[in-house]
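User: My instructor asked us to take a sequence, write out its structure as tokens, and then describe one feature of it. I'm not sure where to start. Here is the sequence I was given:
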Amino acid sequence: MTARVAVVTGANRGIGLEVARQLARAGLRVVLTSRDPAKGRAAQARLADEGLEVACHRLDVTREAEIRGLAVWLEEELGRVDVLVNNAGVMLDPKGSRALGLDADILRRTLETNLVGPVRVTGALVPLMRRHRYGRIVNLSSGLGQLEDMGVGTPAYRISKTALNAFTRTLAAELAGANIKVNAMCPGWVRTDMGGPHATRSVAEGAQTAVWLATLPDDGPSGGFFRDRRPIPW
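Assistant: Let's start with the prediction itself. The structure tokens for your sequence are:
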């Protein structure tokens, strides 16, 4: 059988890189994307040193032309896309930021990457999934976006992840019956550049649920929000 093709956005470091690593180990043909081509090639070389062959492609999820270019390249070079992990994201809120007085520019830039980017990338790649009647879409969300436990701080980031969760639910409903599963996940507090050195989880632990959702069987869930492979409240 032809190996399934997985695209991971923002995969030159952190959770994205680990998701790419684990998917490659599972036998998928991984396309690692990075906003910075040099950093993407460095990540690709790092995986190659581990015996993992992955492709690398430039992608800034805020640039429509680059999204279209990726879709064309995938169709021409690989002929398919089976898995999309929308990992690329930013947290731009200054320390101590609050909803009152939230900088509108920070909110716009955060939404452009964390929400509009995944919407555009997904829209560009779903037609290739439909062609083979198979797809697994994983949106990297956060517990900070949970309405049930919404709190103070990082308002732009929180808003963006809550909106990403809404997109997850809406898209899952639209794709019901197409064998394209759409789910969101929270990796927990992970030791990355964003999470910091004192976080409680390793990058490998943070990536596990995303990899599980990316490889769900046909009877797996869709339209859910997960942490540690278990459903969590929205």
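For the description part of your assignment, you could build on this observation: The beta strands are 5-8, 29-34, 55-58, 83-86, 135-140, 180-185, 225-227, 230-231. Try explaining in your own words what that tells you about the chain.
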